[in-house]
Amino acid sequence: MKKGRLLIDTYRCKWCEACVVEMPEFFFYDERTGKATATSEPVELTETLEAVIALCPTNCIEVVEK
Question: What confidence tens digit (pLDDT) does each residue in 36-45 have?
């Protein structure tokens, strides 16, 4: 399985909470910015994770593959 890092473009993030609700193990609320943020650890790119990324209405979640 592929691994990658999750990056969130905080400029485009509108804090809809979808990513945090669906996968709180990878995404969380950053009180400093008022936006979503992601774990800094590399994660496995599963079908479930890809589906959650696709839910983002502003397409602000990016995966940088290792």
Answer: 999 999 999 9
